[in-house]
Design brief:
Elements: H1 5-19, H2 23-42, H3 51-67, H4 70-82, H5 90-99, H6 107-117, H7 126-136, H8 139-143, H9 157-171, H10 178-188, H11 196-212, H12 217-232, H13 246-265, H14 269-289, H15 294-297, H16 313-330, H17 338-357, H18 374-387, H19 389-393, H20 398-410, H21 421-434, H22 441-453, E1 455-457, E2 460-461, H23 472-489, H24 493-498, H25 500-520, H26 542-549, H27 559-574, H28 624-627, H29 634-638
Helix pairs in contact: 2-13, 3-4, 3-5, 3-13, 5-6, 5-7, 6-7, 7-9, 9-10, 9-11, 11-12, 11-13, 14-16, 14-17, 16-17, 16-18, 18-21, 21-22, 21-23, 22-23, 23-25, 25-26
């Protein structure tokens, strides 16, 4: 009995969250269940892998991800098992590869790999290349797109739009050739034909485009609403759709699931909770620093074993670390929601705080030119600019920009220790390069080569030549290393070519480490506490948060399970605990006030590393990370006798 309690608690919380959602979402979810339950009950023996039945299974998987109904996953898995993961259509293999996220099984992509060898390079087969790239980690499959026609796929507007949406959706908009995105916007301008399936596909494509940010909500939402109103009227009392065909059922479910994501985005309890925590972290720092009052307001708290350095570094640590975690959220555009107002206020405070940080006449001028510690937090500030360059660096006035360039350049006085500090030096130089200033290529190259040299295997790096079992792979090494290479790749094609292999390995390692972090999260939301810098709290999950934000989650992890796991950990850490003092600043500890777990370098500014566990706030509210159903994460499945993904080491 005891072992099922965590699962029951998880399901109860999920049920309460679902019940609290608005009527529109409840109605759409009910329609999905009505239609899909009817279809499954009547077609349990339909095992065909032809394109129409495979299209239904893709829609069935959407229904599982958006509602969390386990029967839908079971149906898709049984269909695949009955066919031994072989199929006559590309759609069947794409569905198998989506199932790979649920239980990683090499059969699911080996068959697809065999299929693709003899598959004609037809336009409608585009999505399988991205699906294989994601499942195998081999970009060579994605590169095949360059050899495949990428003009609109078919003459029919609805099918074209839906096909493009599926293509782009497999790996994420951020990693998709621009020509595909342009074709998507072009296809959205074409009116669909009058058939039910085409209307449904067009509605699906429009809503997916709006949800992903590729289409303007102001321009296309009214049409999407009209189409949705029309197609849902054709759901009959018995749960059949239109003419009762496989295609009608599949296309309706596709549109309904995307509609549900839109509706869930309007009132998402998990996202609201994350926003509240982040605002609670950020507001005391930024509201005071924007007015040059942080030094006057934030009382310094240091470790009982403090090493004697200048305590003024506390303010630099608080600001730099907070901004590195907050930056992704501030990249989202302004809107008229409550969250939008919070985000806009934080961005305005942040821009003023950046100016205060380098203004020698300000009380909040940071400790740039004393001690060596400023190199660390200068790197966090530089990384915040790299994560939100257009929103946080570009708007700064020229005087402030030049002051940053000067301060960053003067930090070359610090000779970084032979450990993760090399990344701090390299990151500062990468920001200088992106800002168009003079930079030291040797410091960048040294950091990249040495971190690669210190890799120990299976996702773990050493912090220098040796190895320590701690979360420094999370706090610094994984995120800063991969983002340093990404920053260089964005500068010129020469850099992209030079660092291609480094990036491929770094991504594989970070994805592996993210897989381990998700497995660390127990059914009750706790995770192991070990190593140095324990008071950094949720920063232990930064690589998992980074891969989520960059839409690069490894196979075996779905958005719904990662959100559920991270949300559970955040609740365990922040609910009902003494994490904040009377002025709203963090206290030293892991969960609550625990000064005894601090290190000799820990102060209450150090603690704002925890903001780095919230990078997924940089994904819009309509993203599947937020709108998919909360799903059991790996340890919940494992400890409740449910199927779960088998673990395996990586090789390069």
């Amino acid at each position: 009995m005891k072992k099922i309690l965590p699962l029951l608690a998880f399901l109860c919380v999920t049920a309460l969250m679902q019940a609290a959602k608005p009527t529109g979402a409840a109605e759409t979810r009910s329609l999905i269940h009505k239609v899909n339950n009817t279809w499954i009950s009547q077609h349990a023996n339909d095992l065909s892998t032809a394109w129409n039945n495979s299209l239904y299974q893709l829609a069935n998987m959407d229904a599982y991800l958006t509602t969390g109904e386990e029967a839908y996953l079971n149906n898709a898995t049984q269909w695949a098992e009955a066919n031994q993961w072989n199929g006559e259509s590309a759609l069947a293999h794409i569905c198998y590869l989506r199932l790979y996220d649920q239980v990683a099984d090499s059969r699911r992509y080996r068959a697809a790999t065999r299929f693709i060898q003899n598959m004609p390079r037809e336009k409608m087969n585009l999505p399988i290349f991205y699906a294989l790239a994601r499942a195998t980690g081999k970009d060579s499959y994605a590169d095949m797109l360059e050899k495949t026609p990428q003009t609109p796929l078919l003459e029919d507007g609805g099918v074209t739009l839906a096909e493009l949406a599926r293509t782009i959706n497999v790996k994420g908009v951020k990693n998709t050739p621009a020509i595909l995105c342009e074709n998507f916007r072009h296809a959205a301008a074409n009116e669909p034909a009058n058939s039910f399936s085409d209307q449904a596909l067009f509605a699906y494509g429009l809503m997916w485009g709006i949800n992903s940010g590729l289409l303007s909500k102001n321009e296309y939402q009214a049409k999407a609403d009209e189409l949705w109103t029309n197609i849902k009227k054709l759901v009959k009392k018995d749960g059949s759709v239109n003419d009762g065909s496989t295609v009608s059922t599949a296309t309706f479910l596709m549109a309904a699931c995307e509609r549900l994501r839109q509706q869930v985005a309007l009132n998402n309890a998990d996202r609201a909770y994350w926003c509240d925590i982040m605002y609670k972290l950020a507001a005391p720092i930024l509201s005071n620093m924007a007015e040059g009052k942080l030094h006057d307001t934030m009382a310094i708290e240091v470790s009982p074993a403090w090493d004697g350095r200048d305590t003024g570094v506390t303010y630099m640590e608080a600001f730099g670390r907070l901004m590195m975690g907050l930056a992704p959220w501030l990249t989202l555009p302004d809107d008229d929601t409550e969250e939008g107002a919070m985000r806009k206020q934080l961005r305005e405070w942040a821009l003023k705080s950046y100016a205060q940080a380098v203004d020698p006449s300000s009380k909040d001028y940071l400790l740039w030119r004393k001690e060596s510690q400023p190199l660390v937090d200068a790197a966090f500030i530089a990384e915040s600019f790299l994560r939100a360059f257009d929103q946080l660096w570009v708007p700064l006035d020229e005087v402030t920009k030049q002051r940053y360039i000067e301060e960053f350049t003067l930090l070359r006085r610090v000779n970084p220790p032979y450990n993760n500090w090399l990344l701090f030096s390299g990151t500062v130089e990468a920001l200088l390069a992106k800002a168009g200033a003079n930079y030291d290529q040797f410091r960048i190259t040294t950091a990249i080569r040495k971190i690669d040299e210190w890799y120990k295997g299976d996702g773990w790096y050493g912090d220098g030549p040796g190895f320590a079992f701690d979360y420094y792979g999370s706090y610094v090494i994984h995120p800063m290393y991969i983002e340093l290479i990404q920053a260089l790749q964005s500068l010129s094609s020469g850099y992209a070519s030079r660092y291609k292999n480094y990036y491929a390995n770094a991504l594989t390692r970070t994805q592996r480490f993210s897989t381990l972090l998700e497995r660390f999260i127990a059914p009750d939301g706790t995770f192991p506490v070990f190593g140095r810098s324990i008071p950094y709290r949720m920063a232990a999950m930064q690589p998992l948060a980074l891969m989520t934000w960059q839409e690069l989650l490894p196979t075996g992890l779905t958005y719904g399970q990662v959100r559920a796991a991270l949300t559970a950990s955040t609740h365990r850490m922040f609910d009902g605990q003494e994490n904040f003092n009377e002025k709203g600043f963090l206290t030293i500890g892991f969960v609550g006030r625990q000064p005894g777990v601090s290190d000799s370098y820990t102060n209450n500014g150090s603690l704002y590393m925890t903001s780095m566990g919230f990078l997924a706030l940089g994904l819009p509210a309509s993203h599947p990370f937020w709108t998919d159903a909360a799903l059991p994460w790996t340890s919940v499945k494992a400890w409740n006798a449910k199927p779960f993904t088998k673990d395996h080491r990586i090789s390069e």
